[in-house]
Amino acid sequence: MAINSKTRLTPEQELARRSRRSFIALGAGAVGAVAGWYWLNGQALEDELPRPLRRVLGFNESVVRNTLYSDAHLVQTYPASAVGKIKVNGDIGMEKPIDQAGWSLNVTAYDGSARQLTLADIQALPRYEEIIDFKCVEGWSTVTQFAGARLSDFTSHFAPGSAKASYVGMRTPSKDYYVGIDMPSALHPQTLLAYEMNGAPLTDKHGAPLRLVVPVKYGIKNIKRIGSVEYTDKRPADYWHEQGYDYYSGL
Amino acid sequence: MRSVCAVKVLEEKHKLASRWFHWLNVPLLCAMIFSGLLIYWAYDPYRIGLGGVTLFHFFPNWFYEGTGIGYQLALGMALHFFFAWLFAINGIAYVLYTLISGEWRALLPDRDSPRQALQVAMHEAGFKVPLPPQGRYNAAQRITYSAIVVMGGLSLATGLAIFKPAQLHWLTALLGGYEWARWEHFWLTMGYVVFFVIHIAQVVRAGWSNFRAMVCGYDLVEPAPLSKDRAAARVEAMHGD
User: Fold this and answer.
1) Min CA distance, B220 vs chain A (Å)?
2) What pTM was computed for the model?
3) Do B196 and B134 lie in a common domain?
4) Cβ pair A117, A205 in contact under 8 A
5) What confidence score (pLDDT) does residue B232 get?
6) Residue of B238, B239, B241 for testing the chain A interface, max A β-carbons within 10 Å
7) Is pLDDT at B209 greater than 60 in this prediction?
8) 117-146 in A: which are within 8 Å (CB) of B?
């Protein structure tokens, strides 16, 4: 007869013992999973996200920046025939039409020196054109043509030495919308200060006279109607980060 | 009349490691699907339909309203990119374990599986077709369970392709581009939902002892003429703890 020689249990008893133990473990696991879920979602918020989730986003950013990110990784470009109709998806900081004649760009270099630039100053830099897939954090994307100056050229020309900074921060003239970009993404060869979109000067709703196009990041980082640029080591405030989104938001 | 020979013996049906991987995957996949829905809500273009006719839109408003899924994109992304690690680690550990332990032999479909799976399906549909001989899993299970593992790998790949389409441009391109990768990612998930429904129905049909075996690992069986595998399993059942 098949009786367990160690414990003297019949197979039925042995099964009952194992079954009881396993179901208790499974039940404890289920309770633990539910408790863990509520614990996680009940943690103190840091910029609108439970702190453990913030930590993981920060961890993910460091993994990506240390292992995947490269200036040599260009986003795909498309033929002009692929260009779609991009929608206007936000007007924070640009609720009223811009007075283009009165516009100027305030630049604060890494050493703290400040200067004001006109659109003509930026247009004097080499002009680059790209047709890229503009990706919204919501999930949609639209192939769009942009033209402007490379932010890397802009930096070396108008804020020499500023590439040493960890971040570049940008704000609308009203300071209602603002983004922070890590320097590697800012200096990416496809990152532009754009003044043209789909073959025409930027329209007011799309960020005239000057907007950021950083195709290695979601649209939320592609600030429209830039009023000021600042190079800094201190991570600049970022509008959507404060609303619970990942600061890095890199693609 | 009972004889000594009628006494049932314990047989190991599922290894401890397999059961852990399986049951850990349940809450992890739930967390991935839930957070995925929070993300999908922000841009929900997929439907079943043809041309201008939509049979079902993923998802109707009553679904969003009933589940409270709307307006949580930021939280959804953070949850998704947190649980993705655990989901991936559990899945990769399972695949490695299955390969190293040799358990894959009981799982992977073989040459006979397609024909046998058809026999199983016809038998279950009520036709008078004899069931083919089976090991731990029948041919239909071998195909389905292996497919689910492959789908898990594809979910990881398509997910990474959406997550970092610039840094992993080769992967995104391989999967047909950014928009296709998102489409694939979505339908793989719908595949899990369909699998889940069928899986639960089959588990209910198979009965309590089958379910218990997935929890505790063992079941009582008739002491049939010992094959090598069964003898080994039984010895382990008696001595292992």
Assistant:
1) 7
2) 0.91
3) yes
4) no
5) 57
6) B238
7) yes
8) 133, 135-141
